[in-house]
Structures are given as structure tokens and as C-alpha cells.
Design goal:
The protein is α/β, with parallel strands linked by helices. The protein contains 13 helices and 15 strands. The protein folds into two domains: 11-257, Type I PLP-dependent aspartate aminotransferase-like (Major domain) (Aspartate Aminotransferase, domain 2, 3-Layer(aba) Sandwich), CATH 3.40.640.10; 260-381, Alpha-Beta Complex (Aspartate Aminotransferase, domain 1), CATH 3.90.1150.10. Bound molecules: pyridoxal-5'-phosphate. Residues 53-55, 79-80, 82-83, 131, 157, 159-160, 183, 185, 196 line the site of pyridoxal-5'-phosphate. This is UDP-4-amino-4, 6-dideoxy-N-acetyl-beta-L-altrosamine transaminase.
């Protein structure tokens, strides 16, 4: 089976991990700060807090922005469930903003409309979490304008978009957001096995997230409520979590990050080749806006005739092609249905869901494999 995504592990990655295993620290050593600095260098963000998953990063990002019971958080229904669950962990309520039919990203006109309605009913959100589907940035400048106008904070869920850019700046620079979140799960652009990070330009948010990452414990005397008792002393200042990344993971991430540019270039080559191979088929192909350079985490095609999606999907799988669907709209999950959402609530997200197939996309996918995938697809659509 050709998988839809697959990590690439080099000898250098293996050596980097082995080196940590032989060192003094498996966790809380020098590899995590080195990886954090590397992510700051790659994105120009001032602060990076590396954690054990993007889900954890989304959770502490929400907490740092003051999300709690009574808060409202909006995100995209076309995402992995973690984009919404982070608000629920904080006791907040979640709502969704419908998406653009071609990109599956949060639609700016829908966001504006929903904000105007929410203003009249005094139910504006505290935080909006746009998701850069497949690695193509949302229109962050527009979202930023709306954030200023309506007074909400912005967390970019850039789990797919490590190495991508928007308006000639790296995703993660946080020009138009308070916090940006990356995932380093093996199917994503670079991996730490499990892992994620929260990036920000705010020292205050960075301090809050660092505390939350490790039990709410600090050794900083300036934060203590009484003089230090000695070198062993620490204080727990609030209820934090254990969301730390290990040094083993960070060393893998650092080593992987050294190949980020060639990985993005190769994914672009694969996307261009799909574009050429598939252009005459009855499917919509992803075409990111000119302001966007996608990381091409996913290559999502949209069938003109959605009644054929299941047959085409099954046919591709039967041919050994590990296609997938990203995503089942979050609001249709039983957990969210129990909270009052239902089919029909976000028609563009649902229509998108019913048409899409994610084709295999990972750096080692060969041109022969792409040709095979294109031929099969053509045959199944005929
Ligand atoms: C993968 C993913 C996450 C969660 O990432 P983990 O690192 O597995 O916790 C969150 N949001 C989106 C959009 C994702 O694709």
C-alpha cells in the first residue's frame, strides 16, 4: 500500500537521537531549548514553547489567552478534532465558521457575518482558531483586521503548515496572530514522533505557556511569594500540566528541521506533478492563492460528482493506494452532536467533506507512483 503520508528518517536523525540517549539528559536538557531556538530562527517568532503534541500546544495557548468556562472559541469545522477540543478542555464553548468551497479554509465572509450577528446578541468569541488546511495559510491579514474590529485573539492552527509562508513571511512569525501552533506528528512536515510547539512574539504569553507546560512550577525568584529557601526551592504558582517535550524528541526535530527547505521543495515538485497529471480529470485541484506558499502537507482533490466519491476512494484503496479523507466535519462527530450541533449546520464544510480525497503526499513518493495514482484515478472516474 502506498501510504497517504510517511515520515522520512535519515542516518543523521538516528545519530542525533542516539547521541541524546548517551548523554546526561533524556529530558529537560539542552536539546529542547536548541530546537526552540531553531524554530524561532526558521519563523522569526520571538518565543517558542516546545511541548509533547500540537493538541497540548493548543490547550496551553487557549489557557494563556484566558479561555475558561463562559468563554467562546470559534474554529473551522474542516479540521482534526483537536482544533476544537482545546477549548472544551478549558470549559469553554465551541462554535464553527463555515469554509471556502475550494480551499476548505475558514471563509472570511462567513466569519464577518457570524461576528456581526454575535455582536448584536453579545456573544462574540474570545478566541478564533483558523486552521491552515493542507499547509496553505488562511487569509490571516483579513482575520487580523476582524480581530481588531471585534476584539478577539487569534491562534493559528498551523499543524499542517510548518515550512509554509504567507505574504512572503514564514507561517509561525505571528504577524497576524497571538500564537501559532505546529505539530510534529510523523504524518506532518517534520517529526519528533509525538510533539508540537506554540510560537508567539509576546513575552507575557510565552511565560504563561512555559509555566503551564510544566505543572505551573517556577524557580524564578522574581515570581515567588516568599524568599527562596535555597537552591532546591521552587514554587507551584498555578495549576499546570506535564506537557514537556523530551530531549530525545527535540534532537530528532532539530535534525529534521535541517532538511525543512528541501522537504518543502520536494513537496512542491510533487504537487506540480499532480497538477500536470490530473488537470484534465473531472476533479478540482488545490490552487493556493498567490499570497501563499503551501507546505503541501496534504494533496486534496475534490470530485465534481460527489456521488462517486466512495466508489473512487474504494477503488484507489483496492489498487493499493492509501488515500484518506481530511476531514470529517468536527461538528458532525457524536461528541459535538451531543453539544447541539448537527448535519446541515455548516453546509460548505459538509459539501467539501463529501467531495474530497487526499492523495498520497510525502517526499519519497516517486514519479512512477504518481503516474500510477493518476492512471487509476482516471480509470475510476471514466
Ligand atoms: C495533527 C493535527 C493536530 C494535532 O496534532 P498532534 O500533534 O497529533 O496533537 C491539530 N490540528 C490539526 C489541524 C492537525 O492536523
Amino acid at each position: 500500500m502506498i501510504p497517504y503520508g510517511r515520515q522520512h528518517i535519515s542516518q543523521q536523525d538516528i545519530d542525533a537521537v542516539v547521541e541524546v540517549l548517551k548523554s546526561d539528559f533524556l529530558t529537560q536538557g539542552p536539546a529542547v531549548p536548541a530546537f526552540e531556538q531553531r524554530l524561532c530562527d526558521l519563523t522569526t517568532a520571538q518565543y517558542t514553547i516546545a511541548v509533547n503534541s500540537a493538541t497540548s500546544a493548543l490547550h496551553i495557548a487557549c489557557l494563556a489567552l484566558g479561555v475558561g468556562p463562559g468563554s467562546r472559541v470559534w474554529t473551522s469545522p474542516v479540521s482534526f478534532v483537536a482544533s476544537a477540543n482545546c477549548a472544551r478542555y478549558c470549559g469553554a464553548s465551541v462554535d464553527f465558521v463555515d469554509v471556502e468551497p475550494d480551499t476548505g479554509n475558514m471563509a472570511i465572509d462567513q466569519l464577518r457575518q457570524k461576528l456581526e450577528q454575535a455582536r448584536t446578541s453579545d456573544t462574540l468569541p474570545q478566541v478564533v482558531i483558523p486552521v491552515h488546511l493542507a499547509g496553505a495559510s488562511c487569509d490571516m491579514q483579513q482575520i487580523h483586521y476582524l480581530a481588531n474590529e471585534f476584539g478577539f485573539k487569534v491562534i493559528e492552527d498551523a499543524s499542517h503548515a510548518v515550512g509554509a509562508s504567507y505574504q512572503d513571511e514564514p507561517v509561525g512569525c505571528c504577524r497576524y496572530s497571538d500564537i501559532t501552533v505546529f505539530s510534529f506528528h510523523p504524518v506532518k512536515i517534520i517529526t519528533t514522533a509525538e510533539g508540537g510547539a506554540a510560537l508567539t512574539n509576546s513575552s507575557e504569553l510565552a511565560d504563561k505557556m512555559r509555566l503551564l507546560r510544566s505543572h505551573g512550577i517556577s524557580r524564578d525568584e522574581n515570581l515567588m511569594t516568599e524568599p527562596s529557601h535555597g537552591a532546591w526551592y521552587y514554587q507551584q504558582l498555578q495549576l499546570g500540566l506535564n506537557y514537556r517535550m523530551t530531549d530525545i524528541q527535540a534532537a530528532l526535530g532539530f535534525s529534521q528541521s535541517q532538511r525543512l527547505l528541501p522537504i518543502i521543495k520536494q513537496r512542491q515538485v510533487l504537487a506540480d506533478r499532480y497538477q500536470t497529471l490530473l488537470q484534465n480529470l473531472t476533479v478540482g485541484l488545490p490552487e493556493p492563492d498567490t499570497s501563499v506558499i503551501s507546505s503541501w502537507h496534504l494533496y486534496i482533490i475534490r470530485l465534481d460528482d460527489k456521488t462517486r466519491r466512495k466508489a473512487v476512494f474504494d477503488g484507489l484503496r483496492a489498487a493499493g493506494i492509501g488515500v484518506n479523507v481530511h476531514y470529517i466535519p468536527i461538528h458532525t462527530q457524536p461528541y459535538y452532536q451531543q453539544l447541539g450541533f448537527d448535519w446541515g449546520d455548516f453546509p460548505q464544510a459538509e459539501d467539501f467533506y463529501e467531495r474530497i480525497i487526499s492523495l498520497p503526499m510525502f517526499p519519497e513518493l516517486s514519479s512512477e507512483q504518481q503516474q500510477f495514482i493518476a492512471d487509476k484515478l482516471k480509470e475510476l472516474l471514466a
